[in-house]
Amino acid sequence: MRWQLGRRSDNVEDRRGSSPGGRIAIGGGIGSILLALAALFLGIDPGIILQEPREQSSYPDSSVRRSPEEEELVDFVSVVLGYTEDTWQQIFRERGETYVEPELVLFSDAVESACGYAEAATGPFYCPRDQKVYIDLSFYKQLKNRLNAPGDFAQAYVIAHEVGHHVQTLLGISQQVNNLQRKVDKVSANELSVRQELQADCFAGVWANRTQKAEQVLEQGDVEEAMNAASSIGDDHLQRQSQGYVVPDSFTHGTSAQRVRWFERGLQTGNIDECNTFATENL
Fold first, then answer.
1. φ/ψ (deg, to 5) at 153
2. Which pLDDT tens digit goes with each residue over 118-139?
3. What is the rounded CA–CA span in Å between residue 133 and residue 191?
4. Where are the transmembrane segments (predicted)?
5. How far is CA 196 from the centre of its chain?
6. Residues 104, 110: Cα–Cα separation, whole Å
7. How many secondary structure helices (H) and strands (E) does the chain include?
8. 22: Cα separation from own chain's centroid
9. Which residue has the higher pLDDT, 165 or 47?
10. pLDDT of res. 19
11. What Rg, from alpha-carbon coordinates, does the chain have?
């Protein structure tokens, strides 16, 4: 990915080295293992699984020395966020709407958000209550080594997916889904979650399409990196990894094939109107 000459975003908040005063409220056992795997990559609303915020003291540790590799990754994240800002500003402008830029919070080990407390194992997430994306950069090592999804465009896809959830919040989609989920049983609520996640994948594809047209950032192999990342974090793949079998009714993010298909749809069309996962029977 050709990113080095890109504009750096001003909306990155660096909380690495801060000490949050809360902890995640997830129990032990198979359920929490599955939850950790499902949350390990992209988009679970931590308000569903985390404690409410509490009084806490947070202080930066200025004595921590960062490696050149990590600082380059911070630079990369800032550039990718800048690309999402420019692309979604243009898309919203074309629709006669205003895009409100989210903040991206970098943290290490644990963080407090308006949705609750999260540890690094939760993975990247978007909190609609404060409209911020949260990511511990150590996740990218897990993406490469544990999920076998290396590459800088795979890393960019992570951010684009979370920003896709922000777009859903601005368009009122997230609130509609939350309202519907409160009225249906767990299986139906899970299906709504799957549709919401697949739409965020499609929005990430739209972003890639439009950013490529505007900035020519893609290199050979980049699209394959993103497709591989999408495939690596399908519910079916993660469940087979953790327990050896799949439980479709428990899916919350979609299968590997579904995630790839919807990212590809956004990438091919560059049109968010093609991302209506709620209006199609066959996902």
1. -75, -25
2. 998 888 999 999 999 999 999 9
3. 23
4. 21-44
5. 12
6. 15
7. 9, 6
8. 22
9. 165
10. 63
11. 18
For 113, the 3-state DSSP assignment is strand
Distances (CA, A) of 162 to 25, 40, 86, 269: 22, 13, 16, 20
CA-CA distance, 43 to 163, in Å (whole number)?
A: 9
Q: Which of 107, 95, 165 shows the shortest CA–CA distance to 135?
A: 107
**3-state DSSP assignment of residue 38:** helix
d(CA 229, CA 143) in angstroms, rounded, equals 8
**DSSP secondary structure code for residue 117 in this structure:** E
- What does the chain come to in residues? 283
CA 198 to chain centre: 11
Provide φ and ψ at 158, rounded to 5°.
Answer: -55, -50
> 50-86: b or e for each residue (b if 16 or more CB lie within 10 Å)?
bbebeeeeeeeeeeeeeeeebeebbebbbbbbbbbbb
User: Which residue type is seen at 105?
Assistant: V
Helix (H) or strand (E) holding 171: none
Q: Please state the pTM of the whole predicted model.
A: 0.85
Min mean pLDDT across 27-36, 63-72, 144-153, 249-258 is at 27-36
Both ends of the chain: CA-CA distance in Å? 29
- With vertex at residue 83, the alpha carbon angle to CA 2 and CA 279, rounded to the nearest 5 degrees, is 115
Cα–Cα distance for residue pair 174/64, rounded to 1 Å:
38
